[in-house]
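B., you asked whether I could sanity-check this one before it goes into the benchmark set. Here's the sequence:
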Amino acid sequence: MKYTSSIITACLLLAVVMSGCGSSESASTAKAGQSSATAQASSGGNIVVTSSSAHDIQGVRHKMSEWVGQQPVVVNFWGTWCPPCRREIPDLVRLYKEYYPQGVEIVSLAIRDTPTKVKNYSVQAGMDWVMLIAEESVAEEFRLGSSVPTTIFFDKNGVEQARFVGARDYNTFKGAFDK
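And here's what the prediction gave me:
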C-alpha cells in the first residue's frame, strides 16, 4: 500500500511539473488548432498590449512599452524551476551577444519565481538583458497560456512576428532573429 501511494504521488508530481513547464505543444497552441510545427509561425501581426508592466529584480516597475514598439524585442517567458527553459538559455545568451549590437533587446519575464532566484540564476547563466517578474496579468495580456518557455519576437513597431511555445535551439531562434 505504501509503495502504491508513493508511485501515485510521484506520478502526480511529474504531471504537475510537466503541465507547468510546458512542451513544444502548449494548451494555447492546441486551442488555436496549430501543431507544434506551426506554433512558431507569425501570429498574423497582432500588436501586443504595451500598457502591461512588471517589476524588475530590484523591485522597480517597468512598462513593456519601454521596449516593445521602440526597437526589435524578444520577450521570453521562463522560470528558474523549468528544465526546458534552462536548456534554451545558453542559445539565447549566444544570440543576445550577436544581435544586441544590432539593436535587438531581450526582455525575460520569470513566471512563478522570486527576484532572488531569478537574479542568482541569470547572473550565473550570463543573461545580461532585462529581467522582470511576470504577474498573472502580464501573462494574460501576452496570451501566454500555461506553457513556458514561450518566446515572442516583436519588430520595432511592436508587431508580433513570431511566437515559439516550448524550448527551441540556436538555429530555430536565429531564423526569427534574422527576420
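One thing to flag: Strands lie at 53-56, 61-63, 73-78, 105-110, 130-133, 150-154, 160-165. Otherwise nothing jumped out at me.
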